[in-house]
Amino acid sequence: MENKEEMPNTKNQTLPPKYLRLSGLEPLIITPESNFINVGERTNVAGSKKFLRLIKEEDDAE
Question: What is the reported pTM?
Answer without folding.
Answer: 0.38
